[in-house]
Structures are given as structure tokens and as C-alpha cells.
Input
Amino acid sequence: MFERLLPIDPEVAERIDALELSFNKFGVDPYGIDKADLTRVVSAFAWIYRNYFKVDVYGLEHVPPRGRAVMVGNHSGGVAIDAMMVMGSMLLDAEQPRLPQGMIDRFIHQFPGASKLMSRTGQFTGNPDQALRLLHDERLVLVFPEGARGTAKLAKDADTLVGFGTGFLRLALETKSPIIPFGFVGGGEALPTIANLERLGRMVGVPYIPVTKWGVLVPKPTRFQLLYGKPMLFEGSGHERDDVCNAMVDEVKTKIRDLIQQGRALREGRLSEADLEL
Amino acid sequence: MRVLVTGVAGTLGRLVATRLIDRGHDVIGIDRRPWVDAPDQVEMFQYDIRKRPAEDVFRRRRPDAAIHMATVTHLVHKSPDRMRVNLYGTRAFIHHCHTYGVKQAVMVGRHTYYGAAADSPLYHTEDEPPMSSHAFPELADLVAADLYASSALWRYPEIATSVLRMVYTLGPTKHGTLALYLRGPRVPLVMGFDPLFHFLHEEDAAEAIVTALARKLHGVYNVSGPSPVPISTIARAAGRRTLAVPASWINFGLGRLALPNLPPAALDHLKYPIVVDSSAFKRATDFQHQYDEQETIERFRAAL
Output
């Protein structure tokens, strides 16, 4: 994929080499992650991550260097720009590089190109069976419990949270995985969405088409704040009553809200890095 | 042990029969097709499993065990005949096993049972229902045959029945769905899609079937070998050139332009992966594949 288009960044190649994934003779892992494709895609992305955007990452040490974990955070900014920055921080900044595997919306794999890209980089349609398998396999699973309703938040609501499902929590309980909460700030500035075209979106097979202040869906160069909180480990089997799970979900949600608020205060210079409570 | 094999003249059937002979079993073969140079140790009957003479073979020869491989795929046979072979053939097989005291039955099915879809997880487990047969009637009868065979598990508990859902086979005989797809001058891919394909060497497939028999397996099991590989990588490793065609063009061409007349949902099998978890089979049998993914493709390539 993209052999002719994308050059390889040697530093990225080194980091992809350091991923603790088992590639077969074709350089493909059991889930179809292709080492060469991943290196090319991340090489191209590394330039965007470092030069077009700027990401201030805090608390990276809270993400375990190996072993199962569920990363849970907020969506904003029309498209999943936040997911890409989480990927960037884990692949390019973390001391031990790791590949977060997102549980993505089902419409994405229906598009040619997107399906291929996502398949070769380990990003699968959100599905409890798939997530359980990945966690049992000691992978890092990335979840945005708000889903498409989260990216659909308009710029003015970028720092708020909409409803969380209980799916991610049940998965974490069942597999005894730590939850790594994170807050992401700046999505609403990079892509200030003022409206979502839902009917047009449905016609082409996406949940909605976001419209930004400047019309087109091109993010402006932005500095983001990405804050990882301390791992949260809950006790349970994953088969608890909904109200029991909802209480735990609220705890995670509160933590994420707190991380977003600290990120916002950092961004506006109201808080110094030394005063952060992750 | 006296083992009856239906579909014995097929590629996999021959490999299984040969292996059974090597292990000292007596093999009785039933197939509509001839097996001209069959080894002497194979008692060959050129009958249709659904017809009375085939039943007579069960009655007179009283096999201890039976392996059912007389199913046909959508690519080979036109619809009504295929449905009859797959369903009525399976029914006759199970019925004869019960009536004539067969102690062990192995039904060889396919992993395409699970169907391909954008949201289906990688590594299907045996408890998952078939997902897309409604959109792909050509597959529906294989699914029905699988479920029908599984019903023998409770219908005739005295027979140790195993239903194997096997991944694609590949190897020097160049037979089978995947080999057929890869054999042409150019391998057509759906533009923008590159699903994982799960396959194992045909010798390993035969070994897995014989192992299921030897271990007296009882239940439904996925059978696979090495981990799956993207179809474009398989094509390249097999020395084939690929041709990426937009899905809409292929849809238009189905039934025309020398392409088989398949519903658009058939295209999902070239867009999305069907990958199975065979850990239950491996736990139950200690089965280990001998050929890894690269060797398997190499053997196929060398024979082209």
C-alpha cells in the first residue's frame, strides 16, 4: 500500500520495530497489521503530528508499556482528529511505542481505501467480541464511548461530554483491564464545526458531514493538549446490573471531564504544568 | 478400521484417502466422479450419495467410520443441483451412518459459513451464528448443510459426529476456491479493499480431517493453520499480478462479461475477511500445521 507515494522516516521505522507485535514472514501480524504499511503511514503522519499540529502530551507514563488496557476519552472536532493524536502520542512519543487499536464506527470499513488503511493498521469496527479478543491478547484498545455523537459536537460544545455507554466498562471488568482515562482539548479550534449535514451524510453513507467556519473540512494548524490520567481499575465480572455499571462509568466520565478542564486551563494559561493533577 | 469417504475423487478426498491407507485403514470411496488411478486399497464406488446404490454400500460394507466431503461450492455448480447435493447428500449421509451402525462421522464444511461483513470480528468462534447467508443464497445451502449436520450431534448421540469448518486450502494440486481465484493471468481485487484470507496447505487440511477421525472428535470445530494473510500479499507471493477494480464495475459485470452470476453480496467475500479461531480444535487434537503461510503459497506457486 502507498509504496510509491510515502517515503519512510528512519526514526519512525525504528519505533515501529520496537512495537511488541508478532509479525509473520510477510510482516503481517495475526490481526492483519502490516509492518511495512504501518511504517509508511506513520512516517507520513509523523510530519503532520510534529509540524502541522503540536501536541502537548501529559501523563504518558500512565499508559502501561505492555499488557492489556482500555484507553477511554472524549471526542470533539467533527472528525476523529483526537484519535489520530492519541495514536501519534503512543507511537511517536511514548518511551515504549504501542499501537492503540481503535474501536471504530461501522461505516468506515464500508469505504474503499479507508477499509484497507484501517485493516492494515489494526483499526477494527467496534464489536465486543473483537475488543475482548484484543484485550485477552494484551493489546491496547482505544474507545470513545461517545461514538459519532461525540465527534458531532459543534465547536461551542467541544469541551462537553455526551452520553457514555457501558460497553467499555464491562469489557474492562470482564478482562480485568485498567482503564486509562484521557482528556483532549483543541479539537473544536482545529475544526470549528458550526453545523452537521445529516441528510446529505446519510445519502453518502456517513452519519453526518461536518461544516466548519470556513466551509471545507480542513483543520487549521493547532496546538492540542492531551492529558492521560492515572489508570483506573474496577472490581467486577462485567455482568453487573446496569445501575452498578453506570456508577462506575460516571466515575470515569467525571475523571475525563476533570482532565478536559485542566487541559483547557493549561491552554489558556490559567494553570501551570506543575499544578496538574492527573 | 473401515472408513467410508464420500467425495473421495475430489482433491481433498484423494489426499484424505491416501493418508487413511498409509495408517492401515481400509478405505471405501463413493463419488459421482471417477477416480481412475485410485490406489488398489481403495474400494471405489462411482455412485451418487443420494441414490440407493450408495446406501447399499453402507449396508453391505458396514463401515466403522465415515467422512463426508461430497459438497460443492457456488463457483462450481448451478444453484438447484448444488442445493440438492449439499443438503440431500448430507441428509443421506447422516441417515445411512445412523441406520448402518457407523460409530464415527466427520462432516467437512467450510469457514465461509460465518460470512463476510464490514463489522464482523476477526477470529470467529464456533458459537457464532452465520451472518450473511441471507444476502448470499449461493452460500445458504452450505450453511444449512452445516447446521443440519450439527443436528446429528443431538439427533444421534451414539455417533461421534464432528463438523469441521475448514479454511480455504491451497497447494500443488491448484484446486479449491482460493486456488481457482489465484490461477488466472490477473487476480482481480476490489479497489480499496484488501481482506485477510485464511488458508492452510491441502496436506495439512487432509491431516486435520484424519486427526479428527483418529481423536473421535464430537462437536463443531473451526480448522485453520497459519495466521491469515492479506489477499494482495498472497497474490504477490504467488507471483500473480493483481488488478484493482472498483466494486461498482464488478457489480455491473456479475452475470455479464464472463463473470459468474452472483449476487452483489458475494463481493463482500473479496472486501471483508473471514478469519476463524481454531484453538478449540487444536486443544482437542494437538493438531499442528506442517506448512506455514509462506511455504504453502510457495508450493502452490511452484506448481503453476
Observations:
- Chain A touches chain B through 27 residues (CB under 8 Å).
- The radius of gyration of chain A is 18 Å.
- Chain A has ten helices and nine strands.
